[in-house]
């Protein structure tokens, strides 16, 4: 767990700049990670995919988020929406006659469309994940006797709830009726569902599809992995939720301070907008504000839905 004193130092800087106390909290819990997939399948060949570049990872993350949220938006259209949103941020910053703030708000507003799509996708994932453990357990139990994932799903499709039922029907139809490759179809299913333990299930299923044999027994650990994952995530959520709340409260004091000074001190506002030192002050204050939100986002990212 990282010390939060560095963040308190940044908060002190905000106090000096804005004459009001601002605190910033950051915590990164040390996670007890479950057994990795590589350990589970060490008896079988497991080839790691090629390491992707940073740009490739960003594009893949955006595409996956759009798919999980049910949006039919191309990557080029997403970037155009983000650019237009960024222009709005630039115009907002221009009202303060501050180039640095305009640049910062351009970046922040460019991020907002992704945040919107991500929030929608997360709401879908929460609905799916509430049903996922039970559905996968049923499939694995049937798979042990059937030794055919498609048949195991078809035999139990009426036991699944929406939207998970539709996802599995689409997967079965792609392989069974339209002749799409098994690997490609199940990878698309994994992207739609977006759960790390389900990703492990998919990798093991692909290995069994290619090699057969007793690899199917490795799948028996998956239901327990779901339970372990849920327990770990709930423990992390309980630990970081109070810190996140404090972070949001303290971050809100920065724009609140600017608003307070604007309403009560006309000279202060003119100083911030029309002088070099004032513009630098506003930039640094907003920088600390967005660093706070970024650190809260990093904290939140520890919870893998």
UniProtKB/TrEMBL annotation:
It comes from the Bacteria. Keywords: Membrane, Transmembrane, Transmembrane helix. The chain crosses the membrane at residues 6-27, 71-93, 99-117, 245-264, 276-296. PANTHER family: INTEGRAL MEMBRANE PROTEIN-RELATED, PILUS ASSEMBLY PROTEIN. This is Flp pilus assembly protein TadB. It comes from Caldanaerobacter subterraneus.
